[in-house]
Amino acid sequence: MRILIATDAWHPQVNGVVRTLSMMADAAKNLGVEISFLTPQSFRTFAMPSYPDLRLALPYQAKIARLIADARPNSIHIATEGPIGVLVRRYCRNQRLPFTTSFHTRFAEYVSARAPVPESWIWAALRAFHAPSQAVMAATPALATELRSRGFRNVVLWPRGVDMSLFHPRTVNLGLPRPVFLCVGRVAVEKNLEAFLDLDLPGTKLVVGEGPARASLARKYPHALFLGARQGEELAEVYAAADVFVFPSKTDTFGLVLLEALASGLPVAAFPVAGPRDVIGTAPVGVLNDDLRAACLSALTILPQACLEFAGKHTWVASAYSFVENITNIRGIAQNGDLEHAITRRSVLESVREKATMPS
Fold first, then answer.
1. Which of 58, 148, 133 is nearest to 93 (CA)?
2. Is the whole model's pTM more than 0.85, yes or no?
3. Residue at 226 is within a domain
4. Do residues 18 and 124 both lie within one domain?
5. How far apart are CA 253 and CA 30, in angstroms?
6. Which of 7, 50, 54, 287 could form a disulfide with 79 if both were Cys (CB 3.0 to 4.6 A apart)?
7. Is 231 exposed, middle or buried (0-12, 13-18, 19+ CB in 10 A)?
């Protein structure tokens, strides 16, 4: 089975969307599913205003059609609502091809944080974008419920995973005063980093990530340490060197970094909002409190073993299986003659389920 994913977020961007798509696609190979990507790398790009690290593509319809034809997919998934997503959606609509979408980013809150645009307008645009989708994939039950309450149809779950071969406890000493309170993610206004940086905490506050707010926050909070972007082993080592993972965001739909922290043996301190509440729930691996300082200090008492056991239940193979199952559940996809080499829903699921349960 071949799946084409259209996404406006791609390397060299470092964010949860890119990591989710990359890791899920790698895991899908173990299920006999081939995933290819239609990304900004095929087009000219320009820097997003007020966010120079984020580049948007300048796609055009003819090349979109050619790239889709070259990929010869059995199914098309649109991961983002940007320029590429819009044109791939238009192609599918014009060709009467079924497609799926996923909801990764709360653009309504992000745009409103930067410009005087009513959130209701952005939500209306997002609802219209996803309306023709055969399945709108959401990372958590709470997000799925919220989308349904906002008028989104065909909402299904697509959980996330973590690579425990990369993120795991190890002995790393950064030479910093302990305890080390770590925050990883995009350094931007919507991440609510000041709620963390304003806290009166012992030890060290450590921020990993790039973004438009990094320079101003570094000047405002000279006692915090800003390391910039880290990936792979370098990122995993920073997780392992910390004592508590602090997640101040109130707008993230999931927070992939939460699972990376837990896999590294780090307890979580966060506000009791949808993202961390959905990931952690009532598990004894973090503290969710409107008083973020109290959450940080209480999290110091949580044992790393509980975090490891919790993270071990979230694999990328399970995430990939859920993604493929959502796609094969689309009624009529196997009968659509415009999708070459389509195979029946039953045979796809049987094949994928068999490979997903094989011992590694």
1. 133
2. no
3. yes
4. yes
5. 27
6. 7
7. exposed
